[in-house]
């Protein structure tokens, strides 16, 4: 009695202090698939194998039956070790002097797969003991699952799920008898039967396995298609790996479109030592193409340009104007003046350093004029604009001050003075074709079609959104494109030509393109329209059907004609008092040449009612008609400058001349 009670206790203690090493079985590879389960990319497990976990209920019964008939007839009856098979193996070894059959059960083979070792008598004994332990711990189904995960299937492929996906292009839940015979035969001699090196030997072994184990006769014996894992989605694969994902991940990407987009970007002339990134989102807000440029050989390309925050240039202007429409400050027909303007010391210029004079808000947005956009944001409020985007799930990244603290929101946001990712910018532009509503973008299927839709947040009112979409559809397309009647198009170029953007919202899809150098340095010839615009046009041509113009939503009635607008909305109210744009108040100006003479200082004013009159320390400055006002100081020191307009309104500043 004492002995019979001590034996189980001893086995429990031994099992506790010497558990099976499941380290190899727990290390899985990653395979990234498109929405139709086409293989796009992947990465081996940490130990360098294409290994995927699988359970027996997910494997075709034909394979399971063939495996048992070939490897372990009495799998369902023995405790992990088959005494009859061992006795037969020992008897054959004694009679013939060499091993005829090994006598190893699936549990014993699994033990050796968990901790590989040489075929010795000591190793065989350890396999026996470990097989008993595995059966006791995990049961027959658990042992079978471990074997199906670890079975060597040639090269660095392990497990029948990885083998089925890489060799046959489908899951092992549906295997033909021929395919099942391949997967059963390969583990017996994985090096000698490698399908990429010894296909004829594998065919013969599979044929022999099937004929010996069953009466099934295959009609044909095709050689397995050895599929090398493509690298068509390296950025998403990297993100999944960083998140600790493994096994098979099905994405929303369209396999054909993803590959075509990568090829299209690679064929475009990129900026000097730069690259392109692109994101395409379908009408269901599913990401169908994601190319972040990380596979290109360019400085700083360790990052994914789809997610990296960059200066958006002018691409946020449509949403600033849309919010201004909502508040009633302006309409698409409101006339604004594009001229020199200083607001709180900030005096922006247009991209080409010229001003258009009086124009409409629609034309100002289509031409991407800076001063009218600044006036729109001033009325909306930078903080309010940022808070609205934040509510929609988009966080603008403000620059940091020299002391490391974050800057306060300013009017420079509308000209690219804050960072945003291509992902978030595309999410905003997708709202233009969803009645002004923003929702998260999906990179993995959301589940059943009957599942509730993703929560939406209102970015713009229905009417404001319709106005912005109509304006952007009137923007001139890139060079070489005849017309884009149903494409809401906008470009942007960041300060210093570091980032070029092209964004398009259509009824079919939303497309975003970024161009630049990943390390953030300038590319002098880079612009959104000339660099990113043609790339966006090429990507739109890849979509399966041409975009079409849908009927506008019933709730989105257009604004009234300008003739019946109230006087307050016909022309944006200008600042009444004149401003001194240059020099800035309390600034210090270097005016002495290398020879010691004083150099002229240009003067610039804005606002009020021209013509202007300038005064230096109370003395009128003589400015010839039509000439640019300038003043040559007599000597270094302080000066008091006054600007007066035709109605005697004035502005004054104090400067120091050095």
From TrEMBL:
Identify the EC number(s): 2.4.99.28
| Keyword presence, Acetylation | no
InterPro entries, alphabetized: Beta-lactam/transpept-like, Glyco_trans_51, Glycosyltr_51/Transpeptidase, Lysozyme-like_dom_sf, PBP_1c, PBP_C, PBP_transglycosylase, PCN-bd_Tpept
Q: What class of enzyme is it?
A: transferase
NCBIfam families to which the protein is assigned, alphabetical: PBP_1c (TIGR02073)
Family, as annotated: In the N-terminal section; belongs to the glycosyltransferase 51 family. In the C-terminal section; belongs to the transpeptidase family.
Q: What is this protein called?
A: peptidoglycan glycosyltransferase
